[in-house]
Specification:
The complex is a heterotrimer.
Chain A lengths: L18 H23 L2 H23 L4 H5 L3 H12 L6 H16 L12 H12 L1 H4 L15 H10 L8 H4 L4 H10 L4 H4 L13 H17 L6 H20 L7 H6 L3 H8 L10 H21 L6 H18 L8
Chain B lengths: L1 H24 L7 H8 L13 H9 L12 H12 L18 E4 L9 H5 L5 E2 L7 E2 L19 E4 L24 H5 L5
Antiparallel strand pairs in B: 1-4, 2-3
Chain C lengths: L3 H8 L19 H4 L4 E2 L5 E5 L9 E2 L6 E2 L4 E4 L8 E2 L4 E10 L7 E9 L19 H10 L12 H10 L4 E6 L8 H8 L1 H15 L3 E7 L3 H14 L4 E6 L8 H9 L14 E5 H13 L5 E7 L7 E6 L4 H7 L7 E6 L6 E3 L12 E6 H4 L13 H5 L6 H9 L3 H6 L10 H5 L6 H54 L2 H20 L1
Parallel strand pairs in C: 1-14, 9-10, 9-12, 10-11, 13-17
Antiparallel strand pairs in C: 2-8, 3-5, 4-7, 5-6, 7-8, 13-14, 15-16, 15-17
Helix pairs in contact in C: 3-4, 3-6, 5-6, 5-7, 6-7, 6-9, 13-16
The chains are: A mainly alpha, B mainly alpha, C alpha/beta.
Chain lengths: 343, 195, 516
């Protein structure tokens, strides 16, 4: 008697990777940096991650339903969570709750699903959302905290919750009492008022290279990024060229005019540069796919970031740089097409 | 003010001359548009477009006398290619001209054929072999499936059939196709009424 | 054309190892089928030989139902230049020529010659080519063609077609491909281990047939026992013009173009073959079969099949007659395990799933793989492409599978062709690594078929156009001709007087005829 079988497509081997697996690994890799963030700047960031994650999941489910897509399958892929976490890491830890809502609304509904959902978005959703809230709500988006070691008023988890929920610091504290300019802001204002960078760096918020606390968070991000490299979730091209370009150009600027330009490593260890290099510019969907394209993409993000930090209207430029290069990515891919075998 | 106007005018004139010169010296010789249209048409020569063959239809399109959606064998793909070529909007196939169907070939029932040569005269691509009072046969590799031979036959001995499909004719299907292209029942569907 | 420097480099094939782009390290899973020696598969009661050939044509049967045949007798032939004759795998009676399961990826039944075996296994008169070492190479090639030798690596490309075109293309090096790169398959490895002398003889036969001056036998670096066995056989044969080379095991290093690149560092031109570099690649089992054809006069009627996977009880290699039902091979290996869920013909990367074990062994059937649910894992749902680019990184043809996928899905055929869809070797690397579980190779197979179909349709449309225009011209000419004759007649009739006179003449003639 002949036996009958169900057929299936080759390869007849278990798949070594899934989208869910990729996204989960990105989340794991973000964990050390996130914990360090909470360690240095209080538990606000964890609340923001929870909020953004909640909003992202709800909105994702809503959009999937509207678009008649399998909700379980796509919610399970974890891409909305990655967007939410990246966004939450970029906003001030005590930003009011509706910042996360507006951000996720823009990220999930506009930047992601209106472009066709997972795999079809032209822009990095987290960065698009960050830029929208940054431009729309400048006040709320500049309320940064000093590192815990420098802060006069330690905010507990409950205090942070109250602040985020009400949009106002607890008790009689005013915003001025608990916030402080970021290192990048400090340098910017100082240079604008005629001070040299070295003078500006005398402030207590500076550490060895970047801002106090910030530089260590960047280290932990980098550690996660290197783990992703080792797991081959991301390739070395974008992080290396991005950081390399910043160091090279920063060094050139520093050598030409050390007064108004910080040492290159300060550029690397402040702002969102490390986070951006390993986790944001490496977003495959909105970035370049060809190897040479990735090199161009990384270098482009580095150049634009530096240009915005030096001459632009905002202290940090990683988000803008990533979005600008997202726009250029299809064109770069077109011009960096690899040669076909034997042609 | 005057200087500005003069400058702009002068620049305009210069660029205009430059462009004129460029079109003349960098002209790319291309096929006349009729040839390009004809190359897109499927060459079935079926006349469903209401023109006596593909080339006449191509000439009518080129002259702007006919819309591009009158060719059922070319289907949506053909319309899209024509729209791309002519810079027009792709429009759906005109149902009055018929609808796109699976390609068929004519087969003559040789026991019924009386050798009247009417089908030979009707065939636009000389794909039927035979002589008066001799049995006729279709060269199936040359048949375009236009079915123009079906209605002239006085004894109704010509059928349009879907060619056999075994593993030799098989090709990898679209992975997301829900069902095979050759569906049962299509054969009966293809015997169209004489127009 | 290939310049001299490139040819020089090609001549040094095997002296230095190179790399090819992309590729994967896969788990071999070969040991389970290598523990037992090759065994003879039992003679089935009925054999079914499918007539479908590499070219896509069916060979024409030259026997009829009821006729009895001897082992090795020719039963089907084809006029197609890329087709080979088929031979009766054993002696018996033809009982039917009808559609039967044909081990085809389509799952469709194909016209097959069904032979009821008589158990005597009586050979026809074999005509070996005596003194082949001195014989004209063209005689060797004719023997190979008449024996119906085809590539046993899985493609079934007629060996004679390859060797014939090689002999006129100035081939300097023959490459015997023993780099069996797909997981699970071990038929070539076992052949080289157990019958190394046959492989060496095959190398010598093919080398003479094609007129090459040396041979490189390429095996994987993990095949220790094979290397020793082959080296001993080479020493015994005193073949100094045959080199044994070990290549690094990276899937798909056994692909023709990839192997050529590993051995020479050169890329086979797109759309070309290794012949463009003066190289000819053949599978080791094909070489052994060619040697049998020339030295013993035996046609291709059997092959070694690896029966393996966790879905069979005792995996091993079997020497099976072409046409033997797979069911029989499985039984010979102890039958299915309770967890057997999928039957694959070929390897896990490029093989295709069969619906039933009634399908027969064909010349292409290098492996029968029975997989269990645990090996397959539950089928993952397909997700949208996230453009991770992993597919491009592993592609040995340096293509951009994610772009090709987009083009093929949306019917952008000229873009797909421009991005090298035809250069895809269907190795399955991109498909395997895709985190979104997109069946990339299936899309590319469909796309390639569609491109071929479109090219054919264009050719046919062009023919139809020419015939239509020729007919129009002919009708036009006939019309003017008719018009001209009518005019001429009219003119010949001239004026009224002339006309009247002619009429009177005619009337007169008629009357005279009537009277007499």
């Amino acid at each position: 008697m002949n036996r009958h079988f169900d057929i299936g497509a080759a390869p007849h081997l278990p798949p070594p990777a899934t989208v869910r697996g990729v996204m989960l690994q990105v989340l794991y890799a973000l964990a050390p940096g996130t914990i360090a963030y909470a360690w240095y700047f209080g538990p606000g960031v964890l609340i923001q991650i929870a909020l953004a994650g909640l909003f992202a999941t709800l909105l994702e489910a809503m959009m999937l339903r509207l678009r008649n897509k399998p909700i379980g399958l796509f919610l399970g892929d974890g891409s909305a969570l990655v967007t939410a976490v990246l966004f939450a890491l970029c906003i001030p830890p005590l930003a009011p709750w509706w910042i996360a809502l507006v951000g996720m609304l823009f990220a999930i509904v506009f930047a992601k699903h209106l472009y066709g959902g997972l795999g079809h978005n032209l822009f990095n959703p987290a960065m698009a959302a960050y830029v929208v809230v940054l431009i729309s709500f400048p006040q709320a988006m500049t309320a940064w905290l000093p590192p815990a070691s420098l802060s006069v008023h330690d905010l507990s988890l409950v205090d942070s919750l109250v602040t985020i929920a009400t949009g106002h610091p607890p008790g009689s504290l005013g915003w001025d009492a608990i916030t402080q300019a970021t290192p990048l802001d400090t340098i910017r204002t100082a240079v604008a008022s005629g001070q040299t960078v070295t003078e500006a760096r005398q402030a207590a918020i500076f550490g060895d290279f970047g801002g106090l606390g910030w530089e260590w968070i960047a280290n932990w991000y980098a550690l996660g990024g290197i783990w992703l490299l080792w797991r081959r979730v991301i390739s070395w091209h974008v992080p290396l060229t991005m950081i390399g370009t910043v160091v090279a150009l920063g060094l050139a600027a520093y050598l030409i005019d050390p007064g108004s330009n910080p040492v290159p490593l300060q550029h690397v260890f402040s702002g969102a540069l490390i986070l951006g290099a390993f986790f944001i510019a490496t977003d495959p969907v909105s970035g370049c796919t060809s190897t040479r394209g990735k090199l161009v993409f990384g270098a482009g993000v580095g150049v634009i970031t530096l240009a915005i930090r030096r001459w632009g209207g905002y202290p940090d430029g990683v988000a803008f740089a990533v979005l600008l290069m997202n726009m250029a990515a299809p064109l770069i891919d077109r011009f960096t097409r690899p040669r076909i075998y034997g042609q | 003010m005057l200087a500005a106007i003069l400058t702009i005018t002068l620049l305009g004139a210069l660029f205009g001359l430059g462009l004129g010169w460029a079109t003349r010296y960098f002209r790319v010789e291309t096929d006349p548009v009729v040839e390009q249209i004809n190359a897109i048409l499927p060459q079935t020569q079926c006349g469903q477009c209401n023109y006596p063959g593909c080339r006449p239809y191509a000439e009518a399109i080129a002259a702007g006398e006919a819309p591009i959606n009158q060719c059922p064998p070319g289907g949506e793909t053909g319309i899209r290619a024509l729209a791309d070529l002519l810079g027009e909007e792709a429009v759906p196939l005109n149902p009055e001209n018929g609808r796109q169907q699976i390609k068929t070939v004519a087969v003559i029932d040789e026991s019924v054929c009386i050798g009247c040569t009417l089908c030979i005269q009707a065939c636009p691509v000389d794909a039927i072999l035979g002589a008066a009072k001799q049995m006729h046969t279709v060269i199936d590799s040359e048949c375009t499936g236009c079915d123009l031979c079906v209605s002239p036959c006085p004894v109704d001995c010509i059928d349009m059939i879907v060619p056999e499909s075994g593993p030799a004719e098989w090709a990898w299907p679209r992975p997301d196709a829900r069902r095979p292209l050759h569906v049962a029942g299509v054969r009966a569907d293809l015997r169209r009424n004489p127009r | 054309m290939t310049d001299r420097e490139t040819l020089e480099q090609a001549r040094r094939a095997g002296e230095q190892m190179h790399h090819f782009p992309g590729g994967l390290h896969l788990r071999h899973n070969k040991r389970i089928s290598c523990e037992l020696p090759i065994a003879l598969a039992p003679l089935p009661a009925q054999l079914s030989v499918p007539l479908l050939q590499y070219s896509g044509d069916e060979a024409k049967p030259i026997v009829s139902s009821g006729q009895s045949v001897l082992k090795g007798e020719e039963i089907a032939a084809s006029s197609h230049p890329h087709a080979t004759p088929l031979h009766a795998p054993t002696s018996g009676t033809i009982v039917a020529i009808e559609p039967r399961p044909a081990s085809h990826p389509s799952g469709l039944d194909g016209l097959s010659i069904v032979i009821e075996t008589d158990g005597a296994d009586r050979w026809k008169d074999l005509q070996p080519l005596a003194g082949w070492r001195q014989a004209e190479p063209s005689l060797l090639r004719k023997k190979i063609r008449d024996a119906g030798i085809v590539g046993l690596g899985g493609a079934m490309f007629p060996t004679s077609a390859k060797v014939d075109s090689g002999s006129v293309r100035d081939v300097h090096t023959l490459i015997l491909n023993g780099a069996e790169c797909e997981p699970f398959i071990s038929c070539d490895e076992m052949l080289m281990r157990e019958q190394p002398a046959a492989v060496v003889l095959g190398a010598q036969v093919l080398q003479r047939a094609v007129g090459a001056s040396r041979t490189v036998i390429a095996i994987e670096d993990r095949m220790g026992a094979v290397s020793d066995a082959l080296q001993r056989a080479l020493n015994a044969a005193g073949a100094s013009d045959i080199d044994l080379v070990k290549v690094t095991t990276i899937y798909p290093e056994g692909g023709e173009k990839q192997l050529v690149q590993i051995l020479t560092g050169l890329e086979v031109p797109s759309g070309g073959t290794p012949l463009d570099l003066g190289l000819l690649c053949q599978n080791v089992a094909t070489a052994a079969a060619a040697a049998q054809a020339v030295v013993e006069g035996k046609p291709l009627i059997e092959r070694i099949v690896t029966v393996t996977g966790n879905g069979v009880l005792r995996p091993r290699n079997l020497l099976a007659l072409i046409g033997t039902p797979i069911e029989l091979l499985i039984n010979e290996c102890g039958g299915y395990t309770p967890t057997a869920t999928r039957l694959v013909l070929g390897g896990p990367m490029m093989g295709y799933a069969l619906r039933s074990d009634a399908n027969p062994v064909t010349a292409a059937a290098n492996c029968v793989l029975v997989l269990t649910e645990a090996e397959l894992q539950a089928p993952q749902p397909e997700m949208p492409c996230i453009r991770c680019g992993e597919c491009g990184r592993v592609c040995p043809a340096m293509l951009l599978p994610q772009e090709l996928n987009r083009f093929v899905r949306n019917g952008l055929w000229s873009e797909a062709a421009d991005y090298g869809l035809k250069d895809c070797i269907e190795c399955g690397c991109c498909d395997f690594v895709c985190p979104s579980q997109i069946p990339l190779v299936d899309w590319f197979r469909y796309g390639k078929a569609e491109l071929r179909l479109r090219a054919r349709e264009r050719r046919e449309a062009e023919c139809a156009r020419q015939r239509f225009e020729a007919r129009e011209a002919r009708l036009e000419q006939e019309n003017t001709e008719r018009k001209r004759r009518r005019e001429e007649k009219k003119r010949a009739l001239g004026n009224d007087q002339e006309k009247q006179r002619r009429i009177a003449d005619a009337v007169e003639r008629a009357r005279r005829k009537h009277d007499s």
